[in-house]
Amino acid sequence: MANYTVTLTNAENLALSQVAASPQAWIDNAVKERARVAINDIVTLAVAKYLDANISIPATREEIVQDAFDRGWVTAAAA
Length: 79
Fold this sequence. Notes:
Distance between the termini: 20 Å
Oligomer: single chain
């Protein structure tokens, strides 16, 4: 599991507190939602590749994501 830290200026923190009851909850939700969308994209891509290659599909979304990276079907954006 990865942990990340976000540093906001005082102005950024004040502005975010004006639109979010809990800035931390808003940040957590934004990041998790973006990850959920990326997982869905990877699963969609990988399932098509499994079917085309007649390969068994892993049982969980987490396993599909890991396998898609292991097979080189997807790579990190920084790569």
